[in-house]
């Protein structure tokens, strides 16, 4: 991953099923940590929300949280 591509510090969020075995949530967590290592304040602008007992699926909470994030940070 090229964290230097995020120098403009965009706000983004990852809504992840904690049990997703197609797109495991650990990638989003590693991305968040990598950005924080380079841009310390960046961690507050990169949200990662793990939804317990959710696999590779879209549930209303994922959509609601994503919309709320972008309303707040947009």
Strand order of the largest sheet: 1-2
- The first-to-last residue Cα distance is 24 Å
Class of secondary structure makeup: alpha+beta
Q: What is the number of helical segments per DSSP (H or I, 4+ residues)?
A: 2
Number of domains: 1
Total strand segments:
2
Query: Which descriptor suits the 3D outline?
Result: globular
Proportion of β residues? 15-25%
Q: Describe the largest sheet.
A: 2 strands, parallel
Helix content: 25-40%
Taking pLDDT < 50 over at least 5 consecutive residues as the criterion, the unreliable ranges are none
What would you report as the Rg, rounded to the nearest angstrom? 13 Å
Order of helices and strands: EHEH
Q: Residue-averaged pLDDT, rounded?
A: 90
Walkthrough of the structure:
The protein is an alpha+beta fold and 74 residues long. The protein has one domain. It is built from two helices and two strands; from the N terminus they run βαβα. It has helices spanning 26-38, 60-73, and strands spanning 12-17, 46-51. The protein has a two-stranded parallel sheet. Strand 1, helix 1 (26-38) and strand 2 form a beta-alpha-beta unit. The longest helix has 14 residues, at 60-73. The chain is globular, with a radius of gyration of 13 Å. The two termini are 24 Å apart. The relative contact order is 0.26. The model has no long low-confidence stretch (mean pLDDT 90).
